[in-house]
Design goal:
Length: 300
């Protein structure tokens, strides 16, 4: 019996990137039964919805829906709700600013069979030269892993989502991000197993608005902020909070010195500054501030 996968894509005002992704999915080489589900989070303009409706001869069964409530968590929940209406055994998730290699799905399924993992993440490659400006590839060695990194390139067993109560992604993280980290933490606590597949590769690009140090630092601040918000949601004890606070203070004290030392190194000079801003983001979350990164759109 063939394995079946529904590929879920959240999109928001980036029809050109969505078209590139859909073209790459149409070119997949796989024996699996594939269907594609797109959720457009722009209820007013719905350019992604309109694009999908125009693809009458698309290779795979293609369904598109509108996610009425704005937010990255909300659109992911809309995708899962509709994916569970299909009979697919696996749900793949890929963002609209990414595109997969031809063997993407088969590599994921092979790793799922080999590891028995409940949720798998694949590597994301940003092309040549990106590591020098802080946009390094997201890669790990293939095999079991303690924690996953993001929802941009995932394969999830259907049973994992059926075992959870909706909402699968917490709407409190609608514009701040961190909904994926919270999702993974809850799965970890439920005893689910994670794995990484370096061979299940997707590619990503860096829009002009992200190709600068200012964005990298805002991103580091945002990640620190949302990571701490997730930690606080799950009520860590005083010891864990004390350890986090010590790490934050160490970064705030040591990162400026490291930035001065590495100022002449183009491949490393952004690293201490990113650590500094990530620590600042964590500290702001502890003070009750939520940074809404997803209020801004990057790319087309």
């Amino acid at each position: 019996m063939r394995e079946s996968v529904v590929i879920c894509i959240p999109t928001f005002r980036r029809p050109k990137m969505l078209k590139r992704l859909l073209d790459a999915i149409a070119a997949l080489k796989t024996q699996a039964a594939i269907s594609v589900l797109v959720a457009d989070n722009d209820a007013e303009g719905h350019a992604g919805f309109d694009l999908c409706r125009s693809l009458n001869d698309y290779r795979w069964p293609l369904t598109t829906v509108i996610a009425q409530k704005r937010g990255i968590a909300q659109v992911r929940n809309t995708l899962i709700e509709n994916a569970l209406k299909t009979d697919a055994g696996f749900i793949a998730m890929i963002d609209d600013d990414e595109w997969p290699q031809e063997d993407w799905i088969d590599r994921f399924l092979a790793c799922a069979r080999e590891t028995g993992a409940d949720v798998l993440q694949g590597s994301i490659l940003f092309g040549y030269g990106r590591a020098a400006d802080g946009h390094g590839d997201i890669r790990r060695a293939t095999g079991p892993i303690a924690m996953l990194q993001g929802a941009g390139n995932l394969l999830i067993r259907r049973a994992v989502l059926e075992d959870m109560q909706a909402p699968w992604f917490d709407p409190a993280f609608a514009l701040s991000g961190g909904e994926d980290r919270d999702f993974f933490v809850r799965l970890e606590r439920a005893g689910k197993r994670f794995a990484w597949s370096d061979e299940a590769r997707a590619h990503g690009d860096v829009p002009e608005t992200r190709a600068n140090l200012a964005w990298l630092l805002r991103r580091a601040y945002s990640v620190g902020n949302s990571d701490m918000l997730v930690l606080l949601k799950h009520r860590p004890g005083p010891f864990r909070l004390a350890v986090e606070l010590l790490k934050i203070m160490a970064s705030l004290l040591l990162s400026p010195l490291a930035a001065v030392i590495l100022a002449a190194s183009p491949n490393r000079r952004a690293i201490p500054l990113q650590k500094l801003f990530r620590a600042a983001g964590k500290l702001s979350a502890m003070a009750g501030t939520r940074y809404n990164e997803y209020a801004v759109i990057h790319g087309e």
